[in-house]
Design a protein that fits this description.
about 200 residues; alpha+beta; 3-stranded antiparallel β-sheet
């Protein structure tokens, strides 16, 4: 969906309200990153909105943001009288959104434009228009996991050195095991460095 609001001059309002059809039991929410979504009672997104944007006639960005009041999405467009009119604003869906699933089961939405590697969880779920289109297992370090690597010699070797570096006796043993583990992780093929089943 795309809604284009055309602002002709500086004398018109700066706030534009869009009633959103929210199914029973769901709610219109905005997280700490500013991502706006219609979310079902179980937390799954039914519809995810893209980042708020507005541009003037020259194609320059105009400051804008969303506000949520009940089931109404309000886009505030902070144009000035020196903006090149008309200004076009658009609260739209149809962009990919990413949900980071943490090891403890909690989750959060990545901010629009955020690097996907910032998710240090177990899974990264990719959505478009509220539908999961991809679920990627992660190593916990922001890198895609490789289920085929689980149980391989390289995986067991890496786990062994990691365990020794954490629980091994003495600082020298921990330091040496950390060095060997790092070197080993750089030497094994890239598809085996992720140890995840």
């Amino acid at each position: 969906m795309q809604i284009n609001t055309v602002i002709d001059n500086a004398s018109v309002p700066k706030r534009y309200e869009y009633p959103i059809d929210v199914p029973e039991g769901a709610s219109l929410t905005q997280d700490a990153n500013g991502t706006l979504a219609v979310v079902a009672a179980d937390g799954s997104p039914l519809r995810v909105f893209g980042e708020a944007w507005a541009k003037d006639a020259n194609g320059d960005a105009v400051p804008t943001h969303y506000e949520v009041h009940g089931n109404t999405l309000t886009q505030v467009v902070d144009f000035t009288d020196v903006a090149a009119f008309p200004v076009v604003a658009d609260p739209s869906t149809g962009q990919y959104s990413y949900n980071c699933i943490l090891q403890n089961g909690n989750n959060y939405w990545l901010a629009p434009g955020a690097l996907l590697g910032t998710c240090k969880g177990s899974y990264l779920k990719k959505y478009i228009n509220g539908v999961v289109v991809q679920s990627v297992p992660l190593t916990g370090y922001g890198k895609p996991g490789n289920p085929a690597a689980f149980g391989t010699v390289a995986c067991l070797y890496a786990v062994g050195w990691a365990t020794l570096s954490i629980y091994g006796p003495g600082k020298i043993v921990k330091f040496a095991s950390g060095i060997f583990g790092y070197v080993a992780s750089q030497l094994v093929p890239a598809n085996l460095t992720a140890c995840r089943g």
